[in-house]
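Meet today's protein:

…
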Amino acid sequence: MTTVGKTIARARKDLGISQKELASRIRKENGSPISPQYLNDIERDRRNPPSPNLLDQFARELGLPYGYLHFLARQLPGDIVSGDYEPERVESALKAFRRALRAGDEQ
């Protein structure tokens, strides 16, 4: 099963970046960097998925699609969460999303 942690670890290794280096680039809400130990725990799936803010930074630093990281974390991206949508519109979007995922399985 693909997880946020495994995806981050794979991308970091593919780029040849150490945990210490990547951790120094990812900032918490207060502006301080995350610790290499925290990153190690994320990569080994010993922590809950990181906050949306951290996921966005991981995506940017590792060249990963931010929506995919949010999907793996079972979180909605911030631009979707901040919207005020009618229930029917949300249901329609989810149906389209499911169809798109199933269509990928059929190819």
Observations:
- The radius of gyration is 16 Å.
- The chain has two domains: 4-75, 82-107.
- Residues 20 and 36 are 5 Å apart (CA to CA).
